[in-house]
Amino acid sequence: MSILIKPLVTEKVSALNEKGKYGFVVKGSANKVEIKSAVEKMYGVNVAHVNTINVLGKFKSRFTKAGVLSGRKPSYKKAIVTLASGEVIDFYSNV
Question: What is the pTM of this model?
Answer without folding.
Answer: 0.85
